Amino acid sequence: MHPDMHIFSWLKYKMTEIYSFGNLPVIAHAWNKDRTQIAVSLGKNDVRIYHKIAGKWKLIHTLCEHLSRVLAIDWAPKTNQIVSASADYNAYVWTLENDVWKPQMVELQRTSRAVCCAKWSPQENKFVIGSSDKNVAICYYEKDQRFWAAEMIKKKPKSTVTCIAWHPNNQLIAVGSCDYRCRIYSAFIKIVDDQAQTSNWGTIKNTNELLYEFQSESGWIHDVAFSPLGDNLAWVSHNSIIFAVSAKNPSQIKMEITNYLPFRCVIFINESMLIVGGHEFSPLIYNYDQDKGTIEFVEKLDRQEVSTGRSSIGRRFDQPAMQTQTPEPISTHQSMITQIVPYQNENGKLVKISSADLFGQIVIWNLNDKKEIVIEAGQELRGDVDETLTLELRSGKAEIFGTELAIGQKYQFTSGMKFSIFTYWGCTVNIISSHDDYYVARDENPMHIYLNVHGMLEQLRQKAESEKTRGPRIMVAGLPDVGKSTLCRMLVNWAARLGRTPILVDLDVGQNQVSIPGTIASMVIRRPASVEEGFRIEMPLVFHYGYKTPGENIGLYNEIVSSMAMYVNIRSENVEKSLISGIVVNTCGYIRQEGYESFKHVAKAFDVDIIIVLDSEWLATKLISDLPSVKVITLPKSGGVVPKDAAKDKFRENKIREYFYGPKNNICPHVFTIEFNEIKMYKIGAPQIPDSCLPAGMILKNPYNKILPVAPSAALVHHVLSVSSSNDPEQLLAKNLLGFVVVQHVDSDKRTLTLLAPQPNIKNKLLIVSDVLFVDLK
């Protein structure tokens, strides 16, 4: 897409709104009063104004009067006037008349170099500009002469003026320049101002008077800002230093030397909190305590993590990483922040800011979403994330599905994710979210019961350890959507926290925790699952099924369960630590008719000792009757468990996407073409044929596991294909999988398939066709 095309991409991320303007840098931007319009400079000689209509941005005006790059824009919200400054030595004031923006040049007769900055006063009756030839001009409108006049500061800076800030009293300005100094001047104009105002910075006596001059040691100044009441002043320099000074004691300048890259902009949130941004890509919050004389780092608005680059990684099935690239930041901004401006105030409080960068993005940050929540002992904070939610444990102890939270660490939950924070001791958490998509559940919850089950299992493990016998084998069963997967996750997490290495077997082909939909899988749990990303997948054992529910081919399902049980039993018997730690088997919610028989088959195949039944007295009674040698325990489901039929398809899609792109979209899969004759494709399970359609006396033997060759065709597009470890088609059911690919295109003329894969090739050319689909929209 050409960068000049006026098409915007928009998304929600980390309580932000991101507007993309292509690849051109956003040099300056400004909002109108109701924030339905934005004026931007994209490094050219024009100002572009866009209007938000029905959620979409449309270019409505292009202000073309400057001859060189526009360096500064400011939009007066009350008078609806725009001032623009350019490298062509000029500044213009734009007024909207009959839906046409009309320019009027500002008389800057003494300016012979680029005008670098321009800013309206709080009362919007004047503005100030700064230029490369050291000039600072206070501009006002001469009503009698009908032109914009400029009154120059006499004791001007000694180098380029880079930034300007207005004091709230409308009569003081702060000026930063490349001579390493920040100055406060009087901006009182007799023609405009009724009378001189007083402030904590001193009494204004003369026009253009220099009140203070602050030395910054070294580094040219990039931006300067007054606090909302005007009692504090802060500025940032190119040597990554933040300076602050208070009107109470202007002789004491506080300097905070940081380890970050140089800052380009600064803005106060309130009298003590300020935000800086620049080459670090992420806005940073600092607290200035004028009484203590300290500037302390608080947090980043955007967590900036380090990835291994957009490298292709065979994440799941013991495939080696292709290569390691230079680490890159994962942040909302992907380039230097050029400007931070206020976006929205409520009751005199700044609640939103906007920042621009060199990659054409403008990001709106919500500063008013953080809430502190106290969770009492035995209570649970439950959430169903609508957009994005950030959580931080501030004090106490808490866990999410058996994984302990670390104090001070921020956890990010994206759209569609659910979480449940439980505390046995009480805790305090901070939540940042633009929606109230969470609540503290004060009802009775079964967490203590679940923990008691864990305690019982640990006692059995200790007994097995002392007697050198087998540890407990547990199967969790129940109706759909009762929390089976969550309970299994908690049980293995609690065990891993004690140093155990249980084997988790997930037989849920629709919502598998270990692999993608359409498979069954198992793996050894050596560490608790990540709060945000789930289990770290290390050498899992995965078998192909190809459908989303067991009922679609119950015979095939039972056969691959038997294959899985054989391998798991061998692993368990040959590794003493796994033998003692035991097995936790998660099942599907398919319990009627054939499904119940399948439950019994699972219990016998894995030789389970204990069956935990969630919220189903009928199922527990049947299992007690039919499996007398197995201990059956009935447990209540959590009150936070809700039906999720509508979310299942989204979960499945996200699980497949995570396989190819990583849990945080931080890896990049490969798309490559392969010829028909290089691969062989099969489908397991023949269509069920009614007996009435068969010849008299004929019995179709085992159609459920019949292996049928599949010819490449357009019907395969978007289908997930499993890469088998077998070289013999007859062994497909008995062999595990190496990974997955997705068919993106079939070219019958060239006899080629285009595949999406985690690696640039596939190790084994024997593929199994699945009924599971994935449409890659990236």
Automatic annotation (TrEMBL):
Residues 480-662 form the Clp1 P-loop domain. GO terms for cellular component: mRNA cleavage factor complex. ATP binds at residues 380, 418, 481-486. InterPro entries: Apc4-like_WD40_dom, Clp1, Clp1/Grc3, Clp1_C, Clp1_C_sf, Clp1_N, Clp1_N_sf, CLP1_P. It comes from the Eukaryota. WD repeats lie at residues 63-98. Transmembrane segments: none annotated. It holds the Pfam family WD40. Residues 668-776 form the Clp1 C-terminal domain. SUPFAM superfamilies: P-loop containing nucleoside triphosphate hydrolases, WD40 repeat-like. GO terms for biological process: mRNA 3'-end processing; tRNA splicing, via endonucleolytic cleavage and ligation. Residues 119-187 form the Anaphase-promoting complex subunit 4-like WD40 domain. Keywords: ATP-binding, mRNA processing, Nucleotide-binding, Nucleus, WD repeat. HAMAP family: Clp1. Belongs to the Clp1 family. Clp1 subfamily. This is Protein CLP1 homolog. It comes from Rotaria sordida. The lineage of its organism: Eukaryota, Metazoa, Spiralia, Gnathifera, Rotifera.
